Amino acid sequence: MEEDILICRCKEVTKAEIIEAIRDGATTIDGVKRRTKAGMGLCQGKTCERLVARIISEETGISMEELIPATKRIPVRPIKIGIIGGSEDE
User: Fold this and answer.
1) Confidence at residue 72, expressed as pLDDT on a 0 to 100 scale
2) Is 56 within 8 Å of 29 (Cβ atoms)?
3) The BFD-like [2Fe-2S]-binding domain covers which part of the protein (predicted)?
4) Comparing C-alpha atoms, which of 21, 12, 7 is closest to residue 54?
5) 18 in Cβ contact with 29 (< 8 Å)
6) Backbone angles phi, psi at 3, to 5 degrees
7) Which of 12, 18, 14 is nearest to 4 (CA)?
8) DSSP SS3 for 83
9) Alpha-carbon distances, residue 59 vs 20, 28, 78, 85 (angstroms)
10) Which residues share a beta bridge with 81?
């Protein structure tokens, strides 16, 4: 039952999915993120990143201090090209 716990609420990733990703070779926060999408939701990992790190630490024996922090990227969304530097008609 404990494996059914949602770790990433934004992407609905369970503890079992994270453990499976770790057992498949993901030993970093970014590795788990790539395999499960945990941390890619609206909160960008603000609510789940530490939980993911703790699970990685428990499963691998790597201390949380030794884990490489997740890569942070600026959120991107489409905008009209005219806003950047073209005319307003574009």
Assistant:
1) 77
2) yes
3) 6-58
4) 7
5) no
6) -70, -15
7) 14
8) helix
9) 10, 11, 39, 50
10) none
Nearest Cα neighbor of 45 from 6, 83, 85, 72 is 72
Domain 2-84 sits in CATH at 1.10.10.1100
Q: What is the pLDDT of residue 75?
A: 66
Check residue 86 and give its pLDDT. 64
Q: Quick check: 51 and 26 in contact, CB under 8 A?
A: no
Select from 30, 28, 71, 33 the least CA-distant residue to 17: 33
Kindly give the confidence (pLDDT) of every residue in the chain, 90 residues in length, as a single tens digit, with 9 standing for 90 and above: 687 999 999 999 999 999 999 999 999 999 999 999 999 999 889 999 999 999 999 999 999 999 988 887 776 777 787 777 766 554
Phi and psi, residue 50, nearest 5°: -65, -35
- The string of DSSP letters for 22-78 reads HHTT--SHHHHHHHH-TT-STTTTTTTHHHHHHHHHHHH---TTTSPPPPP------
Is 0.70 surpassed by the pTM of this model? Answer: yes
